[in-house]
Amino acid sequence: MGQSMPKQPPPNIKRDSSLRHFFEVDRGFWNCEQEFLMKKHGISVDIGNHMSLCRLANGRMVAIDAITLTDSAKAELDWLTLDGSLLEAVVLTHPFHTLGIAWFHERYPSSPTCRWYGCPRHRKVAPFVSWAGDLSCPGTRKVFGPDLEMRIPDGAEFVDPKPPSTNHFSSVFVFHRESKTIHCDDTIMYFDNPTFLAKLFGFQDGSMHFHPSIKTVGLHHSPEAPLAFMAWLKKLLEDWDFNHLVTAHKGRCFCDAKPKIKRMLENAQMPLLDLSAKWRAGREQGGGCYRHTAPASQGDFAWSDQGSECG
After folding, report:
1. First vs last C-alpha separation in the chain
2. How far apart are CA 234 and CA 165, in angstroms?
3. What is the mean pLDDT of residues 187-191?
4. Strands 37-40 and 43-46: what pairing?
5. What is the helix (H) or strand (E) element at residue 228, kind and residue range?
């Protein structure tokens, strides 16, 4: 469920040439890409990871996601945020992107002036953080409006995705209005200069794809789920005036992200309708539907996801 279109260069704005890690995508939005190796069939594959930094109208900053930075990348973040004093919040958007939380929190700890927000799973695996809010709650996703808007895909499990080893589809989409940029982790993947191995798997230069789990476990196994996801993404495309997209896996799409997502969704429509029909047939034959739900506030929840991190 992907497609390739010609790549566009980044917008022509004045950038600080001394920044080598935090690239200013457009005014007030910086993205830092990082190598992230995972073993597939005994082979180490760089699937990439990232974090972003965006400026609010009040001049303060929000970090989106938290990764372990190199010394030189941390120096850039400190320069942009005045040694962290401008950081108003840290927002963690993907349930299985957790490996940088401890490192980042040690250097930019949660406090009344630097609030941390995360997914239900983050709150469970990182109890040392004084969490200010849970992004599964609609009210929490509105705390930085209108500068930042956040949405979670319909039709997919966000609280406790299963199986944890492969269902990494759902994440919080964050839209920074000033720069017209969307930050997304796994739900959408954009490949900018993919490796030779990635190309062998069909990920061509300039191609955009939904996370592969959309075909299997990413959406609830109900006839309504694929339709709900398509409707959700269509509404996002109508509501958000964006140009750029930064993705964890694995690149930045400049200037024409909206038409590329529209094209990708159009190409995925028939496969998603087929999924809906398949699960409707299963329901009619008595097979039931898979839809895992669990209250985010359940303190003794049995998380079944050891070793499933992808960032």
Report:
1. 23
2. 28
3. 89
4. antiparallel
5. helix 224-239
CATH number at residue 184: 3.60.15.10
Whether residue 14 lies inside any domain: the answer is no
Is 56 within the bounds of a domain? yes
**Residue 214 has which token pair?**
């959309």
Residue 120's domain spans which residues? 19-284
Q: How many CB atoms lie within 10 A of CB 307?
A: 6
Yes or no: say if 193 and 243 are a contact pair by the CB < 8 Å rule: no
- C-alpha closest to that of 203 among 247, 167, 157: 247
57 lies in some domain: yes
Highest averaged pLDDT of the listed ranges 67-81, 153-167, 288-302: 67-81
Of 139, 177, 141, 173, the residue nearest 154 (C-alpha): 173
b/e per residue 5-15 (b: at least 16 CB within 10 A): eebeeebeeee
pLDDT in tens, 78-94: 999 999 999 999 999 98
CA Rg, the chain, in Å?
Answer: 19
Residue type for position 47: I
Q: Is residue 11 included in any domain, yes or no?
A: no
Confidence (pTM): 0.87
Domain count, the chain: 1
Handedness of CA 274, 169, 268, 153 (dihedral sign): positive
pLDDT in tens, 219-258: 999 999 999 999 999 999 999 999 999 998 778 999 999 9
